[in-house]
Design brief:
Distance between the termini: 31 Å
Number of helices: 7
Strand order of the largest sheet: 7-6-3-8-10-9-11
Shape: globular
Strand content: 15-25%
Radius of gyration: 16 Å
Helix content: 25-40%
Largest sheet: 7 strands, mixed
Number of strands: 11
Length: 207
């Protein structure tokens, strides 16, 4: 970490690996790989990568299928070590395991093409100010657990949680020192696209 010119605590960008979570099965999208579904002529994951890349020092994509297509975006692709499409915690675990040179990781889903351009700095500032292990985004009464920044040194704890059969992201977060960070001013930035209807609704506006 470092102090900014104004004296506030900040997480150094080069210390952060971004993890784009694209490891699901896309059941509500009809069983297709959501990250590769196109919006405005480009895959959803391309919109996400474009917004996240300037905020982090390095990037990895967590995917369990179509790995060659994801690799074509130019970033390392890591698959879950836990089998059976175990959910976002398995993706976080895979990304953390890959991010050996980073002190922090930040996760975002592959189906949220409008994510805030200041997501990481706001999460990182709150994490340091509250001496937390994990910072998670929140809009009004809704937390967004897959938009989170975590210290990488919680990896052994996550590994043990998964080994014991834990899968629920909220249950794991409850074991950590967590700070919720309000993004009420940009609530629409956390829209995600789970269905064809939501994709059609988003197609009318640019990310």
């Amino acid at each position: 970490m470092a102090g900014s010119a104004s004296g506030s605590l900040t997480v150094i960008r080069s210390d952060i690996t971004g993890i784009v979570l694209a490891g699901g099965q896309g059941r509500r999208m009809g069983g297709v790989d959501k990250g590769l579904v196109e919006l405005h002529g480009r895959p959803l994951v391309a919109h996400v990568l474009e917004r996240l890349a300037p905020q982090v020092g390095s990037l990895v994509i967590n995917a369990n299928q179509n790995t060659a297509r994801y690799a074509a975006f130019g970033y390392p692709v890591v698959s879950d070590a836990v089998g059976g499409f175990a959910g976002p915690l398995a993706g976080l675990h895979a990304g953390m395991t890959e991010a050996t040179t980073s002190a922090y990781v930040v996760t975002v889903p592959c189906d949220s093409p409008f994510l805030p351009v200041d997501l990481v700095v706001r999460l990182g500032t709150a994490l340091l100010e509250h001496s937390a292990e994990l910072a998670v985004a929140r809009t009004f009464e809704q937390p967004h657990p897959v938009f989170a920044l975590a210290r990488r040194d919680v990896l052994p704890h996550l590994t043990a949680f998964l080994a014991e059969g834990g899968r629920k992201i909220d249950a794991w977060y409850a074991t950590l020192a967590v700070v919720e960070v309000r993004f009420d001013d940009v609530a629409d930035a956390f829209r995600n696209i789970n269905t064809r209807a939501e994709l059609d609704a988003c197609a009318g506006g640019a990310p």
